[in-house]
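Re: your question from the hallway

Yes, I did run it. Sequences:
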Amino acid sequence: MRYAEWCIAAPSLEADIAAAAMGLDDIGHSRVLYGSLRELGTPDGADEGGYANVPYLDKPWSDWAQFVAANAVLDSAFTLMIEALANGSVEVLRSRLKKMLQEERYHYLHGHSWMRETKTGTAIERAWRESFEWIGPEAADVDQLHRDGQLAFGVRDLRRRLDERVGGAPPAVGIDWKKWDPVRRRTEPGGIDQATLDMLQGLAEKRYMPSA
Amino acid sequence: MAYSRVHAKVREYDVFARKTRVEPLRQVGSVVAPDDDLAMAYARATYDEERWVEMMIVPRDAVIRLWAPGEAES
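Structure:
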C-alpha cells in the first residue's frame, strides 16, 4: 500500500513503475499468505481490531528516503522470514512461497541500488529498529518455531542474514523488549489510519457496490 | 540521447525477452539506470506484462554496431 502511494511520486518514471509493480507484488504475496493461513486452519474472516503492521507503515511516507529505507531493510527482513518459512517443515508454505522469493529478489535489487545514492538518514535507523522488533526477541516465538522446524532460521540467524543482505553495519538500536507486543510485533502504540485500513480490507470499495 | 535524471550517471540498457524456448529473443524495450541492479529491477517491473520464459538486459554501450539504418554495408 505504501509502495503504491509512490507510483506517481518517485524520482523517475522507472522508479514510479517499480513502486507500482512492487506494490502489486506485495498485494499478491498477502493473498498467498492469507490463503495459506486458511489451509493451516486459521479461521477466515475479518479480525476486527486485530490488524497489525510495523509502525513504519502507520503513516504515508513523506520522503523518498523513507521509501528506500523500507525497501532495502524492512522488505529484506520480511523476505528473510518468507525464506525461513519456505525452507521450514510446513508443506503448504514450502510449495507456495518460492515464487514470492523470486519476485522479492527484484525488490531487494531496487532497494539496495537506491541505498547507494540516497541519504537515508534517520529513516534507515528506524527501518533497522523496526525490522529487529518485527523479528522479535531471542528465546521467544520465532526461536520456538525454529526449534520445532517450522522456521528454517532463528532470531540470531535472521538478524545476521539481514546484516549481510543489506550490507554495512546496522546502527545500534536499543529496543525496550518490555514494551514489545508479541501479537503486533512492535513496541510503539498506534496503528494504521482507519481510511487506509478500510481500503486494505476492501471496506472502502463497498460503497461502489450496487444496492440490492 | 541526453537524459535528465536524478542519478548523476546513467546507462541505457536494452531489454530482450521471449515467451517460449523455440522463439528467438526479441527486443521488448529499454530502461535507464545507474547500475545493473537497478536496471534489472526496472526491466522486470516495466516489462512484466507477458509470461516470459527468459529476459535479459544488455548495456547499450556494450553493443558493437556494424551498420545502422541508412548506412550501406561496406
